[in-house]
Amino acid sequence: MRRVVLLAVLALAGCGEARQDADEPSGEFKVEVVEASFPETQHVAERAELKVTVRNGESEERLRNVAVTVETKPRGEDAALAFGRNVRGAGLSSAGRPIWVLDEGPAGSDTSSVNTWSAGELFPGQEKELVWKVVPAKAGTYEISYRVSPGLAGKARPAAGRTSGTFTVVIEDEPVPARVNDDGEVERGGEPPGGEL
């Protein structure tokens, strides 16, 4: 009897959670990317930031859940991952391998999708910047794309405009030169005194 009551309580508790795609309107809405940046040259183990600023453009109504999807160009027919690629091979528990390690995603923007984040509610003309703090983990040349949508479920579609983009990024294996200055602070980049580390 106690088990039945416990299951009923758990079922009722789950009913109070609203789906992220609940009440998503259908149709086209003017949402756009205002600005985006990601360093074109990066170094393994040196932090980098992907920044995407989105705006509710000419829409006359608020957009309840603007979504931003980030994908690294896959190889062949592999599924696209946000900051990694699939690696095929026997004995792998997971095929996904990071190119960038996601250190910190945009605050409060997690969704049920592994490559889509929510910018939340945007009123007409309102902008919001999303920032991903990443650490490059694998040297090479990669393409990483981003796109914005006025909703998470696919019923709300973006109108024509700047809704996506791509960066070609070179990750170099050699670390950035670093030295400790006279104040005891670490300085990165440039040649250290004497041309040596």
From TrEMBL:
Q: Where is this region: Disordered?
A: 174-197
**Domain of life where this protein originates:** Bacteria
- Locations of Basic and acidic residues compositional bias? 180-190
Record-given protein name: Intracellular proteinase inhibitor BsuPI domain-containing protein
Taxonomic classification, please? Bacteria, Bacillati, Actinomycetota, Thermoleophilia, Solirubrobacterales
